[in-house]
Amino acid sequence: xxxxxxxxxxxxxxxxxxxxxxxxxxxxxxxxxxxxxxxxxxxxxxxxxxxxxxxxxxxxxxxxxxxxxxxxxxxxxxxxxxxxxxxxxxxxxxxxxxxxxxxxxxxxxxxxxxxxxxxxxxxxxxxxxxxxxxxxxxxxxxxxxxxxxxxxxxxxxxxxxxxxxxxxxxxxxxxxxxxxxxxxxxxxxxxxxxxxxxxxxx
Amino acid sequence: xxxxxxxxxxxxxxxxxxxxxxxxxxxxxxxxxxxxxxxxxxxxxxxxxxxxxxxxxxxxxxxxxxxxxxxxxxxxxxxxxxxxxxxxxxxxxxxxxxxxxxxxxxxxxxxxxxxxxxxxxxxxxxxxxxxxxxxxxxxxxxxxxxxxxxxxxxxxxxxxxxxxxxxxxxxxxxxxxxxxxxxxxxxxxxxxxxxxxxxxxx
Lengths: 202, 202
Description:
The structure is a homodimer of 202-residue chains.
Chain A: E1 2-6, H1 11-23, E2 29-33, H2 50-65, E3 69-78, H3 99-109, E4 119-129, E5 135-146, E6 162-164, H4 176-182, H5 184-191, H6 193-199
Parallel strand pairs in A: 1-2, 1-3
Antiparallel strand pairs in A: 3-4, 4-5, 5-6
Helix pairs in contact in A: 4-5
Family (chains A, B): Belongs to the HAM1 NTPase family.
Keywords (chains A, B): Hydrolase, Magnesium, Metal-binding, Nucleotide metabolism, Nucleotide-binding
Organism (chains A, B): Amycolatopsis viridis
């Protein structure tokens, strides 16, 4: 059985990729995570695009392990902010990983933005890099609109203010499995399936 | 002599336009400011572009006074922020008019942005609207790069972190007259001169 590294320490992300592969009948791939890789060098994400960051992370993982590696980079793109926070989503307020501060800042910046201009999308770029240098990078998008206050406690990041198209709930009010099925991350990972299927030898 | 309203209460902006007109030999126009217009309705700036905001302000001024009116809207566009703060420059931190908080936030957001991607421009849209409905809107840009810390005490807003192209100083270290000659506002107002000259009957 081939192994593929998912460049994350997040057990939920590992589970998500394993579920997607199983659902597609791709049985020939064992997914391992970064917790199995001692002393992986965590480089800062300084790319100008989600794709650059996902590719850089996957390349670093291949260099460190010689395994085929999948990596992703995700964020919120807000129409009225010309697509920002984008690659700065996790540090929009200047404090890296402070979800509440980041979300509060986006709401404050959009105070005077009318409903018809509050469109946004969650975006995920996912990259697969093979030890032979073959690179595949794909993008998943999840369109919606930004509310004026937070609702719901599932999810993380900007989920509590993001209402997907065709939904009355925010993505923080959706069950994790529902979100997997619709989300930018799920879409990006499914877009990688043809390349993963080839890797698995199907 | 014709009169033209400059839609501002800022005496420095009035002086700047008067100086530019005098320097161009346009003597047939008396420039008046909003402090001469009691109870002018100040509308919030909710446009998606500098041009929309400048035009809206000039139209409001014409409606209130029946005078030809000039208005401008300015801001900082940062390449690594996809052109934002843009029209949100004065309220980027969520606190309207808090120059220090706005500047600090931009610096924090660009912490990991390397020097070669720190390009930015000050942009000014200036609009002239006549009582007969004729509208002219122009744009002035001032390219430069953003430093990593503030320098200088002239100017306001983002001046202390903006180093214009061809300069070693920030725009907050330049003398006001030098800044007038080079700045986005000066360029935009000079681009309005043909329309103002026509208005003055030259």
